[in-house]
Amino acid sequence: MPTPHIEVRNKNEIAKTVLMPGDPLRAKFIADTFLTDVKQFNSVRNVLGYTGNYKGRRISVMASGMGMPSIGIYSYELYKFYDVENIVRIGSCGGYTSDVKLYDVILVKDAWSESTYAKVQGGYEGNIIEGTPELNQKLIKAANDLGIPIHIERIHSSDVFYRENPDKYKEIYEKYGCVAVEMESFALFHNAKVLGKNAACLLTVSDNLATKEETTSEERQNSFTNMMKIALELAE
Ligand code: HPA
């Protein structure tokens, strides 16, 4: 410590549970909107990280950046070098079916991916990795207590945002049962697994490949509060 990508020297400045939005400004939004007694612990590459209190309980929030290489780096450093136990990704996703509507919240049961991340990182040959069931149970309870409906589903973790074949999603939905696409959870779940830690992922539907609906980036930054409130209940 510090690590190549996180500058704080004292691991006590990061809570045991870290929420990870992709966007650094979303991390700042969460700290500004929901936390008290906030202390910023990272600004390397503008990947902002904060620790504060939510309803009197401690929690951290730090951005992951976009894609598996990026969340792979940040989650590994937090787990391995800063003794973080739980990481909850809170991100956006693109729906693969009209069954998931704009702004619906999905708790990722497991992530299917054609990515080589897990194979290269640790020799894992499979295509599906699940989130930590105990963490998922806590998030399900928090969602129920808050009265926020959630889907519990398999999603696609993709390395590619712009595909040459834009209809490929139909096959991935039908063959593997992925209801939406994002770009990080397969790597996060893999890192948690190899390091004996806990990971979960909540997603808000920001666009839908089947219905062609989409939200604006401004709406995305400010309106994903349901997912944030569920995840913040893990503060301890
Ligand atoms: N593809 C990949 N990741 C995403 C998408 C998408 O369409 N929407 C939000 N995250």
From TrEMBL:
Its EC number is 2.4.2.3. GO terms for biological process: uridine catabolic process. Residues 17-231 form the Nucleoside phosphorylase domain. Gene3D superfamilies: Nucleoside phosphorylase domain (3.40.50.1580). GO terms for molecular function: purine-nucleoside phosphorylase activity; uridine phosphorylase activity. InterPro entries: DeoD-type, Nucleoside_phosphorylase_d, Nucleoside_phosphorylase_sf. GO terms for cellular component: cytosol. It catalyses: uridine + phosphate = alpha-D-ribose 1-phosphate + uracil. Keywords: Glycosyltransferase, Transferase. Pfam families: PNP_UDP_1. NCBIfam families: deoD, PRK05819.1. This is Uridine phosphorylase. It comes from Defluviitalea raffinosedens. The gene is deoD.
